[in-house]
Specification:
By secondary structure, the protein is mainly alpha-helical. It has a single domain (2-143), classed as Lysozyme (Orthogonal Bundle). The protein has helices at 2-16, 48-69, 78-91, 93-97, 100-106, 110-117, 129-143; strands at residues 19-24, 30-33, 122-123, 126-127. The strands form two sheets. A two-stranded antiparallel sheet has the order 1-2. The protein has a two-stranded antiparallel ribbon with strand order 3-4. β1 (19-24) and β2 (30-33) form a beta hairpin. α2 (48-69) packs across α3, α3 packs antiparallel against α7 and α5 runs antiparallel to α6. The longest helix is centred in the middle third of the chain and has 22 residues, at 48-69. The two termini are 18 Å apart.
């Protein structure tokens, strides 16, 4: 489980970037650290150690939440859990649970699930190149 969590943290870090002062993301949500939004308000400042610790904790929480919403992931290769958790971390657990990624995984339609990951590349209604790159890597991770 530790290896899975380490791989997941590395994937999230690759795309989130870390900022130690609260800022508003592309759609105006207050964010800090490695993409953390829970309880973040203007003026919050973290240390790097805080950001790293919160990321590890939250990624673990998102992993459990993704497994709860898509129980089939318990039976799948680690890459599928990593990809789905990274997606859930970025779009939210509710959106992931209602997604065609989750539905198709449950139905064992793996290629359809992987392709559905690519649909989540927008913020504020427009395609974001960084999200497109992230989704391509999540898709590849899901299929390996």
């Amino acid at each position: 489980m530790r290896d899975l969590l380490d791989r997941l943290v590395a994937l999230v870090k690759r795309f989130e970037g870390c900022r130690l002062t609260a800022y508003q993301d592309l759609v105006g949500v207050w964010t800090i650290g490695w993409g953390e939004t829970l309880g973040v308000v203007e003026g919050v400042i973290w240390t790097q150690e805080q950001a790293d610790a919160v990321l590890r904790l939250r990624v673990g929480q998102f992993l459990l939440a993704a497994l709860k919403r898509c129980p089939q992931l318990h039976l799948e290769p680690p890459g599928r859990s990593i990809a789905c958790t990274s997606l859930a971390y970025n779009i939210g657990v509710g959106a992931f649970g209602a997604s065609s990624v989750c539905r198709n995984t449950t139905r064992l339609r793996y290629l359809a699930a992987a392709d559905s990951i690519l649909l989540w590349n927008k913020a504020g209604g427009r395609v974001i190149p960084g999200l497109t790159n992230r989704r391509k890597l999540e898709r590849t991770t899901y299929l390996t």
